[in-house]
Design goal:
Length: 212
Amino acid sequence: MRLLTILGSKGGIGKSTLASNLLVAARLDGIEAVGVDLDTQGSLAAWAGKRYAGGIQPEARVVAGRLPGWRDSVDVAGNPVLAVADMPPGLPDDEHFAATEEIATASHLVIIPGLAKGPTLERIGEVGQFLRDSGAPIVFVLNMTDPRKRATKAARAYLSQHGEVCEVEIPEREHIHQAMHQGLAVSEDRRFAGYDAMLALWAFAARRLGLR
């Protein structure tokens, strides 16, 4: 089983959105993939519930759990080819910090979304570098970007000082957020704005995971 983990040091940076899109993209590639929602807010699990209630295909199964017991949650998922773990925001205590380091170093790829905003970006860079130095396969992904703004280029330059930055950037598009609320993913419908970027991110992740 390959483990892809999406993590960040705070909420609102798009972890669950990226997890849902990558999970659907994997399923569309014919890969047996399961989501693992380790966030107490349960955004990924709620998304999967809407998808199931609407009879939307391909099915995207999500197992809910807690970060300190992440291994048990992954075990509950069975033995899929790919598990996509959506992490909780922040590192509130030593137990969560240790569990984050543990799952990151056990993962085959860790994606950290980054927004082109000062304080948020700084904390993400620090956390990413710490985990990278611990041996985790960290890659930063610029999310909700506007390529016309100098802040986007500055954010890429800053994050590159702390680790690898994916060449794919996810643009700020209303379709991406609307799809998430409806149990959908822009990665499954080319009519959605953001479709090409999400598929490009999946292609990058699949190569790193050895699935292509």
